[in-house]
Fold this sequence. Notes:
The chain is of the alpha+beta class. 31% of the residues lie in helices and 20% in strands. It contains 17 helices and 18 strands. It has helices at residues 3-18, 24-31, 40-46, 67-79, 136-143, 161-165, 174-177, 205-211, 245-256, 293-301, 322-333, 350-354, 356-366, 386-397, 449-465, 480-487, 491-501; strands at residues 36-37, 60-62, 86-89, 105-108, 120-122, 127-131, 148-150, 184-191, 196-200, 219-230, 234-242, 269-275, 307-316, 344-349, 377-382, 406-412, 429-435, 471-472. The strands form 4 sheets. Strands 5, 6, 7, 8, 9 and 10 form a 6-stranded antiparallel β-sheet that branches. The protein has a 4-stranded mixed β-sheet with strand order 1-2-4-3, with helices on both faces. The two termini are 33 Å apart. Flavin-adenine dinucleotide (FAD) is lined by residues 50, 87-94, 98-99, 109, 132, 154-156, 159-160, 162-164, 166-171, 215-216, 220-221, 474, 508, 510-511.
Amino acid sequence: MAPNLLLLTAICRLIAIVGLTLHPTDLLLAGTETQLSFNRTDIQSASLDFGRMTITEPTAVLHPSSTGDVAKIIKLAYDSADGFVVSARGHGHSINGQSQAANGVVVQMSGSRGKPVAPEVSEKLMYVDVWGGELWIDVLKSTLPYGLAPKSWTDYLYLSVGGTLSNAGISGQAFNHGPQISNVHEVDVVTGKGDVVTCAEDKNPELFHAVMGGLGQFGIITRARIALEPSPRRVRWIRVLYSNFSEFTHDQEYLISLHGQPSSKKFDYVEGFVIVDEGLINNWRSSFFSPSNPVKISAIADGGNVLYCLEITKNYYNHSDPESVNQEVDALLKKLNYIPASVFTTDLPYVDFLNRVHKAEMKLRSKGLWDVPHPWLNLFVPKSRINDFDEGVFKGILGNKTSGPILIYPMNKNKWDKETSVVTPTEEVFYLVALLRSALQNGDEALTIERLNNENRQILKFCEDEKIGIKQYLPHYTTQEEWMNHYGEKWPQFYKRKMEFDPRHILATGQRIFEPSFISSMKSW
Length: 525
Ligand code: FAD
């Protein structure tokens, strides 16, 4: 079939399903350059995400070739009498259907068949301009030939730029550089009215701040200008263990308090994780340890106590003398109170460190353990209540089988721009606690989806009952009341921005914050 005829058929189907009232010729004109797909494989892929717990089918999937394509489809939805919803999908790594679009159009930003613009590096000004659907691994590949790299990362690089900027984008560098949203100079955004707007701190700042951590509510990010730094060549990667939680958090907090120091006097990355079971060797962050390490670790654990692992790195450059790296590391380690026999060190290229989770992904994929349900729960916990959280959750609610890594590391609030849409606890230092668990059907009752979801509910209830003051990261709620509670005093601003930039509530309805204004004409939401 000729491309235009194919498109016309597709549009007619869209009209039939969602009841658009525009004339087909207008639609054809509006859509001539777009690549709207009704292919079953495309629809099924867009109706699923990494969480594998929510399945919602769109009517069509758009593979945009440009910002203009994104603008056309949104404008169409905005101008049509009956309307339809539009959601950007990065790499579909959400947990609860956040990038899905019931009976609407999913804009597949990553792996776009239309091959939108390639990354463009400015060596002089140390930034890279990238398409909103670019994966971070490809951003890195584009900057390395210039000896440059982004400053702030996520642990896993097969996530899209637009997807992580719509949340925050955090990893062990956040204490020092802030989240990824603190390292963006400028973005192009297509708003819920179909307008294309370039924005930055000093150019349309309201929209800029709205989309940073905005959960896709205010526009689709089609280009981002990301700050770069000279890329380190190698990384000294160190893990040390603690059996005492207070000593563990004391040391983590000390290390992040060094953020203002020269680089020789601080680590470049500070994370940590909880070890409550023998499953360490099987989880996706365990590639660090050699086969003999778990034996050593279980000897240290001495009878199944909860252990805490501090994970730190020191980056170095070609010219760095390895001996001076040793000295800098030793000087910092001397200040810490870990179990003396528990230092594990490795040294590897910077790229291999950044891409460490992909290695583990490949292993899990080969065992059929990657495409399973992931009832993940990510929380920001204020520093003053982290001990209570440890007692109630790590040593309480969690059994002795965790079914996945549990990360814990602190961050400095002053590295987060308070004008953005993200909400964090009120205290100056807060922790990320990430329960990254996989549900398995291997006959072990402790690992079922029901059991893990039930534990998540218990954890949230414990935090509420004990007034811990948490905020969810990658938040998931199903009622507007819960969302208002999540945003707290930021809700009026969030609401006002929504009315300004997406007044018909077309965008990212999978987040379940706002109902589309044309809900009655939709089959389901
Ligand atoms: P999607 O899941 O496709 O989209 C997420 C939301 O953003 C949706 O609402 C979508 O509509 C919206 N969106 C997507 N693209 C755009 C765009 N261009 N413009 C506007 N809105 C858009 N997060 C961290 O911060 N740190 C980590 O270390 C980390 N590690 C992870 C490891 C793994 C294995 C996985 C699966 C996830 C991890 N995440 C981490 C979470 C990740 O940040 C989220 O899944 C996020 O949603 C990015 O995924 P995505 O690019 O696939 O976006």
